[in-house]
Design goal:
alpha+beta; 93 residues; two-stranded antiparallel sheet
């Protein structure tokens, strides 16, 4: 069964907790995407890109492919909609 796990996990990539999720058989969509952004996902309404993500889209092996992983850094009227950047993955089930 295709499985997708998303969220603000409040742990960084390659941390102990990230490793636990990865060891469960779920994969980070950013790592397996054909086209991928990188950088931090939490920005505290200040923007920026330097750092590691704490928001993830994990998938199992039943996801056939991920063509795009994007960190959406758009503003609306010069303001961010959240203190985290949304993340997006275009995947094929």
């Amino acid at each position: 069964i295709p499985t997708v796990l998303t969220g603000d996990f409040n742990f960084s990539k390659y941390s102990h907790y990230y490793d636990i999720v990865s060891a469960s058989g779920l994969r980070d969509s950013q790592d397996i995407s054909a086209s991928s952004d990188d950088g931090k996902t939490y920005h505290g309404y200040n923007g920026g890109t330097d750092g590691l993500p704490i928001d993830f889209i994990f998938v199992n092996n039943s996801i056939e492919s991920i063509s795009t992983y994007k960190i959406v850094r758009d503003t609306y009227g010069g303001k961010y909609s959240s203190d985290h950047y949304p993340i997006y993955a275009d995947m094929k089930f």
